[in-house]
């Protein structure tokens, strides 16, 4: 069995966090985080389909990943835009959305659809990072800091921050190191996904209804 | 995996691990610091609120007492004086009437004493020792119990506002003694030193079982809150059938 089948660990993680999200849906159904249930289900389906297409049908599925990536970042910006209170922050998020869309379209037009759009990812991840920091800033400046561990948006932001923090250098360094020839890099990717979906899962399991009212 | 691959893997891995670790530490410290600050502030706010609440309660109480005092002195007092004169005017001086006059005279005297002791304005013109002495005299006249006051050291002036609070604490204690303790003796000691005033009051009544702070009665709680307000240290000792003792230390501020 090839080491590349380890990517199914990630699909499994996505499935698990989606299941936790379903189980505890009632404790965050009144907040903006409720969209994460659909988003995580969509993530699982997209990744699962992509992996199946690639591994069993030999189809190049990077176009699917690229599409998924663009949708997921747009979803994060929409979500942050709706939970950030400061007008300045929301304006910046709007600006990010426009710039990101520009980068994504540029890459769709000028890059091969059979390659992973690395720079779309770097731009999207960087903007998401800034959004997460905005959200932390907002939490730090409110009374919510006292019960932050029960707040779903805190855990989602922590996951996104750590994941993107790790992925950005990884993507940038791939210029200098040939990752495709070194199968062991899969462990880094799995580790980062473990952190991301681990944070999501902790959030879904710990969160309490009264801290998720928007 | 050859040497070069291992090296490149290690470089990438450490770069990522380091950035993650630093982020987690920074996040944790930031949130913890902020949380502690907020908690401290909340505690401070609560303390200020409680102090203000106690002050307001005392103000309302003093205001009520002042009104009752005026009512007693100016209204009921006048009516009783009138009644006494009316009885004295009666031509046939039977022994019963003489007795009634005497009783009314006593009642008027008691009424005046009481009115004076609950009126904050009147208390302001008295020292703590004088006020306590008046209260003791009242108890002795009523023959509820044998009350005595002892003053040690040179008495020093206390801020009238704080003095009233100290006196009200003692009054609360006395009223408990009279109402519940079935005591036959009440002793008060005011011990003045250069830096502090130690007040001890004790009765020989039935006492009560020491309760924890949480379920102690409103009277006790009030005493403690008021003591806190003037930064006095208050202790209550009681054993069943061993009487009750109040110890309060008030520090003079320079």
TrEMBL record, chain A:
The chain crosses the membrane at residues 6-23, 35-57, 63-80, 92-109, 121-140, 152-172, 184-206. Keywords: Membrane, Transmembrane, Transmembrane helix. The keyword Methyltransferase does not apply. The keyword Membrane applies. It comes from the Bacteria. This is YhhN-like protein. It comes from Ulvibacterium marinum.
TrEMBL record, chain B:
Residues 39-66 form a coiled coil. Pfam families: HATPase_c, HisKA_3. Its EC number is 2.7.13.3. The chain crosses the membrane at residues 6-31. One of its GO terms (molecular function) is phosphorelay sensor kinase activity. PROSITE patterns: HIS_KIN. Keywords: ATP-binding, Coiled coil, Kinase, Membrane, Nucleotide-binding, Phosphoprotein, Transferase, Transmembrane, Transmembrane helix, Two-component regulatory system. It comes from the Bacteria. It catalyses: ATP + protein L-histidine = ADP + protein N-phospho-L-histidine. Residues 67-254 form the Histidine kinase domain. This is histidine kinase. It comes from Ulvibacterium marinum. The lineage of its organism: Bacteria, Pseudomonadati, Bacteroidota, Flavobacteriia, Flavobacteriales.
